[in-house]
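One thing: can you check what follows?
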Amino acid sequence: MKELTKLGIIPIDFNVLATALKGYQSPKDKISLLENNGSIIRLKKGLYVVSSETSQQTLSRELVANHLYGPSYISLESALSFYGLIPERVYTVRSVTNKRAKRFSTPLGNFEYLTIPNDYYSIGIKQEIVNNEYAYLIASPEKAICDIILCTKNLRIQSMKAMQVFLEEDLRINLSVVKTYNTDIIRNCIETGIKKTELTQLLKLLEQ
């Protein structure tokens, strides 16, 4: 369908979809039919994305994650996997938000959102542009590591050596993948006063 193809792979709400299908007698019934035959995918109530078979484009779970719940950006293990910092493939797309924590189970997989404080949220976010067609927000490598430290409950690290063990043995992060870390991002995180001791040890480790 030309109407759907024009929409591409960016998630759209019900009103946008209904407007695209306004030529039909009942856009609402048409949307239900399109969902049933797999032409569109319902991500949650009121939010849809055109299927890859219909759009002839590969769907981006990272792009979906940004639209599914926001404000949010890709982080934690999902960002570390994107940068090649951990060997495992991550099946749940993990993001952080300044809203309450949330989980979604969709036909495209599972999406998880963890909460971080508002003054810490905006540090170290970058825009990943894909083929000049769409973009999504993702943590820088440094911020993704900081986010994991922040979101790991009961984490108490008092030395640089303990931080190295946590990153390389517990999380299996290969710190040598990134040749130059932007330590200013970590400093900005430290200035918020959250997990200050742990983040200071991270800063020392990456600067040595």
